[in-house]
Amino acid sequence: MSGWLALSPLFVFLGVFLVSSILTDDFYSVPVSSAFLLASIYAVMITKGPIKEKIDVFSRGAGDHNVLLMIWIFILAGAFASTAKAIGSIDATVNLALRILPGKLLLAGLFLAACLISMSIGTSVGTIVALMPIAAGIAEQSSISVPMIAAVVVGGAFFGDNLAFISDTTIAATSTQGCNMSDKFKTNIWIAGPAAVIVAAVYIFIGMGKDVTPVVGEISIIKLIPYISVIVLAVCGMNVLKVLVIGLAMCAAIGLCDGLTWSGLLSSIGSGIAGMGDLIIVTMLAGGMLEIIRVNGGLDFIVNRLTRKIKGRRGAEFSIAALAGLSNLCTANNTIAILTVGKIAKEISDRYGLSPQKTASILDTFSCIVQGVIPYGAQLLMASSLAGISATQIIPWLIYPMALAIVSVLSIVFNFPSRRKA
After folding, report:
1. Is residue 321 within 8 Å of 143, Cβ to Cβ?
2. Per-residue pLDDT tens for 190-245?
């Protein structure tokens, strides 16, 4: 199968989504799941072989262990968020945040909190799970729009995911390039750091122009325990699944002691899981379609096209950046994207004398940039589901990925930080 034909399901998805949104004059009315279903059917149809084999390939992608792990996180996150809301935990946490942070610094403070938490726990999804319900509650109590405040959390979550030593993307990038995590961090901080400072300044400026005078309600200390525990346990490095189970158990115990009935508890858990249904379907459809693209040679085609005419250091670094970004576009998983093109990036790096830490930084940064803005990525899907909005509503407000992209491109053009292989 030709490379462009192998990639065509991705174009079908984007075409259906964009054209339908333009025709309806509403980018928020077209379900992502519908576009993915049509693209998935098309992907199966153009693939050669018996229908059973094609369905097996699709099912293998949809049932990949990374996809299933993400689905478990979605289920537990939905159950926790719904139960926390039912017992008043979200309201209590929101009231505490509003009491501590000055109104005009809410956006900057929330962004900083997301940066610090994601830096500590090494997972953007875990950070979004912990902070998004709180952020949505703050938006309801203030004049800040939900999409804007959701983008604040998503941006801060990707800051830590890009830099944390325990992040899957950091581990993948450094292991494929054969460099120390500390060296990669020293290089990466000169790129992500300035971007975060710029974005924080922008949020301070935006906050100064807003008349944020939320009404702060009663703060119940006992109801703060679930969210504070989730954040503390996550920062301590506990697995996100264990964190969510413990958080759900705490919500259940507090709710039952505070008058919540057993049937009411089960109802809140069930509604939370049901609220993640569309997110789960999109994740499985995307996994299946992208596996068909990979099997048909779509990723290999991208790699070969981008590495044919490399000239000099800048060309080599831009090629690695494009490889990471396009691979992430086709896999919707930044860790898998890095692992997919890591070996090729290493060969390019060795051939053109690039430092392994700069190459690792480029792989991590550009995969995170793309992951941060695709509406079918786990982070935006999770954020939109917890905030009760469409993923496409968040995208225009994503200042941090845009700032990171600009600084990253400038770092290649002007060669900073300058770290060549000895």
Report:
1. no
2. 999 999 999 999 998 888 766 555 555 667 788 888 878 877 786 676 777 888 89
247 neighbors 226 (Cβ within 8 angstroms): yes
Which is nearest to 97 in space by CA: 135, 63, 71? Answer: 135
Q: Is 420 helix (H, G, I), strand (E, B) or coil?
A: strand
Q: What angle do CA 398, 72, 269 make, to 5 degrees?
A: 95
CB 364 within 8 A of CB 173: yes
pLDDT tens digits for range 329-382: 877 778 778 877 787 788 788 878 889 999 999 999 999 999 989 888 888 988
Q: Give phi and psi for 307, each to the nearest 5.
A: -100, 10
The dihedral over CA atoms of 225, 226, 231, 235, expressed in degrees to the nearest 10, equals 90
Q: What is the DSSP letter of 143?
A: S
Q: b or e along 29-63 (b: 16 or more beta carbons within 10 Å of the residue's beta carbon)? A: ebebbebbbbbbebbbeebeeeeeebeebbeebbe
Contact 159, 400 (CB under 8 A): yes
Alpha helices in 215-276 (DSSP H): 221-235, 240-257, 262-275
Sign of CA pseudo-dihedral 344, 44, 279, 383: positive
Can you tell me whether residue 390 is helix, strand or coil?
A: coil
pTM: 0.72
The dihedral of CA 137, 141, 147, 149: what is its sign?
A: negative
Residues 6+ apart with CB under 8 A from 244: 73, 76, 77, 79, 80, 129, 230
Which whole-number Å values give the CA distances from 324 to 178, 279, 341, in the listed order?
A: 17, 25, 7
Q: Cα–Cα distances in Å, from 393 out to 145, 219, 338, 369?
A: 10, 31, 27, 17
The verdict on whether omega for the bond into residue 417 sits within 30 degrees of 0, i.e. cis, is yes
Amino acid (1-letter code) at residue 90: I
391 close to 383: Cβ distance less than 8 angstroms: yes
**Which residue type is seen at 267?**
S
Q: How many residues does the chain have?
A: 422
Tell me how far apart the alpha carbons of residues 111 and 149 are, in angstroms, rounded to a whole number.
9
Q: How wide is the angle at C-alpha 200 spanned by C-alphas 198 and 204, nearest 5°? A: 115
Q: Which amino acid is at 22?
A: I
Contact 133, 232 (CB under 8 A): no
DSSP state of 216: P
CA-CA distance, 234 to 102, in Å (whole number)? 26
